[in-house]
Design goal:
Shape: globular
CATH topology: TIM Barrel
Number of domains: 1
Order of helices and strands: HHEHEHEHEHHEHEHHEEEHEEHH
CATH superfamily: Divalent-metal-dependent TIM barrel enzymes
Pfam families: AP_endonuc_2
Number of helices: 13
Organism: Prosthecobacter vanneervenii
Keywords: Isomerase, Signal
CATH architecture: Alpha-Beta Barrel
Number of strands: 11
InterPro entries: IolE/XylAMocC-like, Xyl_isomerase-like_sf, Xyl_isomerase-like_TIM-brl
Protein name: Sugar phosphate isomerase/epimerase
């Protein structure tokens, strides 16, 4: 392929990828967090092809095992593949907090793990290297969540010169109910807003007993990446139940969310990470529940969360049928949830 042909194909792919966004007048780029269709078992190249087939703007490869290897030649090949399709890549990893219950030394020390992610992000042209602290279990035990926040700040600061030298920002996610918005904001400010920001997740915000639009007001100005889904909440005898849903199927006012997101985090894509089909109870009526969320019960944020539960209604969970078709059913369900979210965002965002 000569240079002229390559450039022509690249421009055509870019135009196709942005077609639906231009047609709807949306200010938001729309992308996929690979975890939305995790049942496929695909590697990075296959996820890029899938994003291209849907004419998305971005592809967020949010975990390192999705790469076949970390060699420069392989990574550059992925970038060329994405460039041809007009897709911008975002890169992330998991826990880099060595005091968290989620911590594993698969990629060396926490600093080595985050440094590797930064290098991969640089090669793939990602503006961010996403990572997270842990999950809601880290709110228990001596020192609570603050002990882990301090540990993660140390790791991030140890990688500051590398991140700044490569022009990569470290995006910390509010993950699985680990940190509330004010806690993640404090972490980012302690580490340094110049090279650290938020990977915002409104579904995980709900797991931390926060209302997504209020959560967005706190973290929106610090947001540099996203992994989004909707949520349905309803009341039960012990408190409330949360089930994540496709965008547009839940109780969150996602039209207002998308509008405010574009205002607070201009240029940042909305990247769909649907993790639907199961319900999680939150027994907030029991006193022991509040040990992990001290001082939150009487806040406007919790009252707004509770109002969502009062307005919501129970929905069925998904269970793939047992047997040889189980995996195919899971893949079809996950693709359906993600693709319905893209359609809703293109029509309403």
């Amino acid at each position: 392929m000569n240079r002229r042909t390559f450039l022509a194909q690249s421009l055509a792919a870019t135009a196709a990828a942005s077609l639906s966004r231009a047609a709807t007048g949306s200010k938001l780029a729309i992308g996929l967090d690979h975890f939305a269709v995790r049942a496929t078992g695909w590697k990075a190249g296959q996820f890029i092809d899938y994003a291209a087939s849907l004419k998305l703007d971005t592809m967020f490869i949010s975990e390192l095992p999705i790469f076949e290897n970390f060699e420069e030649g392989y990574l550059k090949g992925l970038k060329e593949q994405a460039d041809r399709a007009g897709i911008k890549l975002y890169v992330g990893t998991g826990c880099v907090c060595n005091t968290s219950n989620r911590w594993k030394d698969t990629y060396g020390t926490a600093e080595e793990h985050l440094s590797l992610t930064i290098r991969i992000a640089k090669t793939l042209g990602s503006p961010v290297a996403r990572c997270y602290l842990g999950d809601q279990k880290d709110r228990s035990g001596d020192g609570g969540i603050q002990r882990h926040i301090e540990s993660l700040v140390k790791t991030i600061k140890a990688c500051q010169s590398k991140a700044e030298g490569e022009g990569i920002k470290i995006a910390v996610e509010n993950h699985a109910g680990d940190m509330q918005s004010h806690e993640l904001k404090a972490l980012i400010e302690a580490a340094g807003k110049g090279y650290v920001g938020a990977n915002i997740d409104p579904g995980n915000a709900v797991w931390a007993l926060e209302e997504p639009l209020m959560h967005l007001e706190v973290l929106g100005p610090l947001t540099i990446c996203s992994s989004v889904r909707d949520s349905m909440l309803w009341e039960d005898e012990n408190g409330a139940v949360v089930q994540w849903t496709a965008v547009g199927d839940g109780i969150v006012d996602f039209k207002a969310y998308a509008k405010r997101f574009a205002e607070l985090a201009p240029g940042v894509p909305l990247q769909v990470e649907t993790i639907s089909g199961f319900a999680r109870p939150f027994a907030w009526k029991k006193d022991e529940f509040w040990k992990i969320f001290p001082n939150h019960r009487d806040t406007p944020m919790f009252k707004a969360w509770l109002d969502m539960a009062k307005r919501g209604h129970k929905i069925d969970s998904f269970k793939a049928p047992e047997g040889p078709s189980k995996k195919d059913a899971e893949i079809a369900y996950q693709k359906g949830e993600a693709e319905r979210s893209f359609a809703w965002l293109r029509a309403n965002a």
